[in-house]
Every structure is written in C-alpha cells, then in structure tokens.
Amino acid sequence: MKYWCPLAWLPSRVASGVLVSEVDGVITSVGSATDPGDAIVLPGLVFPGFANAHSHAFHRALRGRTHGDGGTFWTWREKMYDLADRLDPDSYYLLARAVYAEMALAGITCVGEFHYLHHAPGGARYRDPNAMGHALIAAAQDAGIRITLLDTCYLAGGIDQPVSLTQQRFSDGDVFAWAARVAELRPASHARIGAAIHSVRAVPRAALPVVAGFDGPVHVHLSEQPAENDACLSAYGRTPTELLADAGALGERLTAVHATHLTASDVSLLGSSRTGACFCPTTEADLADGIGPARELVDAGSPLSLGSDQHAVIDMLLEARAVEHGERLRTGQRGRFTVSELVAAMTAHTALGWPEAGRIEVGAPADLVAVRLDTVRTAGSLPEQAVLAATASDVDTVVVGGRVVVRGGGHALGDIGPLLAEAIG
Amino acid sequence: MKYWCPLAWLPSRVASGVLVSEVDGVITSVGSATDPGDAIVLPGLVFPGFANAHSHAFHRALRGRTHGDGGTFWTWREKMYDLADRLDPDSYYLLARAVYAEMALAGITCVGEFHYLHHAPGGARYRDPNAMGHALIAAAQDAGIRITLLDTCYLAGGIDQPVSLTQQRFSDGDVFAWAARVAELRPASHARIGAAIHSVRAVPRAALPVVAGFDGPVHVHLSEQPAENDACLSAYGRTPTELLADAGALGERLTAVHATHLTASDVSLLGSSRTGACFCPTTEADLADGIGPARELVDAGSPLSLGSDQHAVIDMLLEARAVEHGERLRTGQRGRFTVSELVAAMTAHTALGWPEAGRIEVGAPADLVAVRLDTVRTAGSLPEQAVLAATASDVDTVVVGGRVVVRGGGHALGDIGPLLAEAIG
Prior knowledge:
alpha/beta, TIM Barrel, 2 domains, 9-stranded mixed sheet, 8-stranded parallel sheet, globular
C-alpha cells in the first residue's frame, strides 16, 4: 500500500509531498512526490504513530465520576479500588477494547499497559493465570493498536505491610511466582511483553532486582506523591530513586513514570543512567500530584515519553502541551521544549520495547497519524508548531502496521462512544 | 420556539426532561416534560450559554506561530505587536468574525472583547474613530454571538513612558479623548459597551478614576507578570491592586483579569470590595505567567469568570478544568472548586454587563449550549461532572437569543476553519 502525505513529520524536518510505501506493515520507501498517483491521500500533517507509554485501561471508567467531593490522590484511589473489585476478564476485555479504540481515534498506535489487575477477587487464580493480561492483548488487537503489556509486580500494601483485600487481586504472593506467571504470557505480532515494579511501596527491596532484571522494558511508578517519598525515606533512609539505584534497577531499560517529587541527586541518578522518564501531566494535574522536573531530567540524560495514565483525557497532543505548560508555569519561560522534542516524546516507542517504531523512515512499522490543519483549532498555525494547537479531535486518519484503523475521524469498529458507555455502564 | 433538553443545567440542579420556551429571544417558561412534543430536541446536557469574559480577538492569528524560539511573555508581545501593525477595520472584521464563529462552536454565546487596537497605524484617526470597535460589534453580530466591547484606555508605554510606534494605535492621547470617543460607540441588541484600564503600566495614576468611573462594566489587566508589580512598586510604592484601590477603582463593576501575582493583602482588597476576578488559565500557562490564587479570591468575595484571552485555545470547558487543575497542582488537593462553581464561572455574564444572562430561567436570554454525553470524551461520565470530561468538540447545538447558531457541531456561516485560515493568511 502507498500513502501520500501533503505534509509529513520526517526525522529531520517537516516535508511536503511525501509518498510512503509499505509492505507487510513495514515502510519500504519514503520519497518525494508532488502527485499522489494511486496512493491513499492522507489529509493535513502526517506524524509517526503516537505512543501512549503509560496506561491503566480500567481507570477510564472513573472519568467524570470522582469529582464529587474533593479529597486527595489517596481518596481517589479508594474509588479506583472499588472499580477494580468489579472487573473480570470478559468485562475487562470489553472495557479495554473501547478504551484502546478511543486511543486509536486520538492517533495512539501503541500503548504501554501498566497492568496489575491479575487475579480474581480475593486473589484466586483464573484458569489461565494470565487471563486478564491476555484479555488486554486481545482488546488491543481488536481495537487495531499495538500493546506492550507491562506486567506489574505488586506484592505489598505499603512498605512492610500486607496487601489489602482489593490488592489481593494484584499480588502473586512473591516475586518468583510473579516471574513464573509472566513467563507464560503470550506475545503476538501486535503485542510485546514488558515488566513493571508497581512502586517501591508495593515491591519489597529484595524483590526489586528480580523485576528489574526482566529481559525487556521495565517501568516503575516513581515519586508521584510526597507520601511515597516519606515512607521510603522512613523505612530505608533513602529516596525511591536511590533505592532503585541500590537495587541496580536504573538504566536504559527502565522508565520512571511520573518522577514528580525528585531531589537534584535523584535527577542526576536517573539522567546519568539513561533511565527514561514518562510524564503524565493531565493525570498529574487531575490527581493533584504536582509538576515534575521534565526539562532537568531530559538535560540530565533521560529520554522523555508521555502517558495518559488514568485517562481523565486521552489526547497525546494535550499531554505534550501540558508538559511544556508545566515547565512554563514553574519557570516563567516559554519554549522550554522545542516542538521537535515534544513530538519525540509523543512518538517515543523505545520505552515500550519497539525501538524500530516512532519514525517515518524505511524499516519502521507503517504507523501513521494524519492531523488536519484546516479545523477551527489548527487553521492558521504553522505546520511546524501545529502540535501546540491541535487536539485529538483533529486526528483524521490512523494507520497501524499498514492497516487503516481510523478514517475521517471514525474507527473501523464503528461508533466508540456507545461502546465506552456500555462497558462502563 | 421551544427546546427540549434530555438533561439541563438549571440554577439548582441537573434536571432531566426539561422544556424551555422562548419568545423574542427571552425564556418565557422552563418546565418538566417527558415528551419533546413539537419542540426542537437538543442532545446531551444543556447549559446556559458560556461567557468568554476576556478576549483579544486578533491574538487568534498568533496561534501556533510563536513557539519557534522560546522567550518570555515580553518577547511574545513583540510578535503580537507585529500583528497589530497589520490590521485595519476590514481585515479585523473578517478575522474577528471567524474567531467569534469559532467561539460560537465552542458554546460561547457572549464575549468580552478587551479592545485596544483603536486607531490607524501611527495613531491617525479613522473617519469613524470607532471604526475598529464597530468592526468587532459587526463581527459578533454576523457570527451570531453577543459582545461586550470593553473599550480600553491605553495611554502610556509604561509608567511615565511615552507610547511606542505600535502603541500609537492604542492611544487616544489623554483620558478625556478616550472618554469622548467611547461616548460615541453604538450599542446594539447583541452588543453592550464597557470600559477597560489596559493596566497600571498603560494608564497613568491620575487617569484611573476617569476610566473606573465608566457607567458599566470595567476590566483591567492586573498583575499578570512580576515585572508589572515591580514597576508599580518602584514608581508608586504600592502594588497594582493597592494603586487601583487608592484610585477608588475597586468594586462590583470592576473585573481584574489574570490576578496572578498577588499579595495576601491584594486578595483581601479585591475580595472585600467584590471586585471580580477573570482567570485565563490556558493563556496564563502558554505565556508562562503562573498560577494565580483563584480559590483564595473566591473565598475572599470575588466572583470568578473565565476568558480565553489570546486564544491559544478557545474552549471554556478547558479553561474551567485548567483553573481547577492549577489549584490542584499548587495545593495537592482535588475538588478545590465544585463543578457548580466551575459552571458558574463559565457562564458568568455579570462581569460583562449582562446580569440577566447565564441561567436557564424565566426572563433570561434564551442562550443554550447542548453538550453531547455520548462521545469518546464524555461517554461514561456522570452528567453532574461532565464539565471535567467534555471539550469544545462535544458542543453540538448553540442557541443565542432563541436563534440556532450552531447545529450538529456546524456553524450557520458554514465551515469556519477555512474562514480562519483566510483571515489569518
């Protein structure tokens, strides 16, 4: 198949009149062409597929349902646990399929699912102990996007505390049982397997090296809330970042999610080890986490990725803008990130174990997102800066592995709003 | 005409099955009805029309064009001045009509236009000295929305500094010439006249009482940037708020726009005098202004309104969410504003001199905004909390004074993206 882009975001520049050829889902040529010929014509500005590097799919069911009575991150978590108690593999498949379809509509072609809802209520194992994980992989397949299942180790309800009743669904009992279960997960052409340390609260110190040693991408919630730092300092006499460093967990395969409340020394440890940083600024605002040191982390050496996390909104363009806005608000300076850096973060697939993806170039997966430049939101913007004007509503066409998943703003599965409503219902 | 709302945001609650009758643009009855009968059926949740309390229409032409090379608020302002140099009444009419149509699509039924681009380049008067203001009033008319033209007094390039070449377009020379020109502005059924003090930098101390004495709403840019505070303290030995207080300018008719960098004493002065506060959080993030003390101002007694200001985005739902997010980011608490308080701010017309508007009740203007609850963004949310999930893209139908201006997400003028592109050209 061939696709013609009036404008395309190539690795080195925004080019006009670009013909992208694809065979078996992989880009085989990228050339200049003033005429589309027999190619499929994409509108607007065509980006590489967006990567949503941090997702908890089931949290989507909390959108617009947790603002009734104030509270904090921790009271929000109680509502999230109530929801976690109610899902099984069938209902989670239906919910996740709709959520991943919403992601596809937003131009997301690959999701990193930070997955910890493993077992049946009370902790009973499903017949397939990976029934929930496989439901998520199937959901991504049917929604037409790639997934990296970041299977999450979750063993404690806090440092030196047993898991609660709800958390029994998250726990494998010990880290070796976690590893044995993960070894049985089945990847697929659209699905790769990674690991996650839920947090230094939920994984005991001795277990950290086991998870961190997983042969693939590893993610960890890091210093999202001051209370996490306080607990870690109190128990171990060091910050969560320092604890991970001591466990040998830092490095290029690790991505630190949130990284909101860091010391200067934490930033240096993360950056010098090339540990990734995944910011989720719409969630970090919604959950009252705070604004993390994105620019300092990138300057120190950490590659930046972005996630929609709890899905109060699913829009990588808004996440990119929000990370830059956070910088502006805390420093009084504009342009803390260049637009190219923001696009790099929106399309960062390495943190998800797809290092070949995220660029429109030969050999990369044919994952393309066409963003209209003629809507009320984007009209008048320079293409090079349209990322700071567009929203998910401006995504017109999405191609994943050479397959058109979204066209004219509509998903191949049909109308997704009702699918979401039914799954959440 | 009659409109049937499956759900409606009434002053006291979200009600289901609401029939709104209108005669000559004014609501004549609001009743309960399970069946639409012969009424026009609106989808989703119907709000009173949104008020955009702070607009500089021409700044829309800067969207996606000022992110090339970092800088600050003050370097951004240079780009804005370059643009200001190029507009005349005809081109400004075309640009503003498209911008106000974009506002209508976002559910905005009344705009407060903080208008300071009065004269021809170099300061020459147009044959109608209010040609630019009248162009804005005509643009709002043709876009189908209400306008309050906040005619802005702008006399100095800084405290004790002459106006620059560009600023000659803004200046009437002295405050009495400003007042004489404003007296000739022609209101209309859709248009009311207010006044504005551009800022304590641009209006000398002695002139403040004259503008503040205008018989109608008066707005002022207040403490948007620390440099404004520094200049005011240095020249007058008091904060901008204190200077306005000394001039007798504070009070219910005054709205302080931004109010970002305030002392506790400033908050108290503004609140106790019932001076309004207009926050523009997407602009305040984009321009690296900072996060102002919204909750403290409201608690002190200031009514809150919202504006899209420089129009990096035009979406009052996002403005409402952003003011709450700012609160969450700076305090670590969720629910700093109730959803009802956010809706009150989004629909606050008193600051624009339309105290009868902004509520679905008998005697109010028939200004209605139907927001879909079945899109990928809103599906699953509780109607009472949908404001924290919806965006301007979910606005389906907009009625202004009983006239349907937007239907099915389309404007009566046709496709607005191309109108914007052409006007910005």
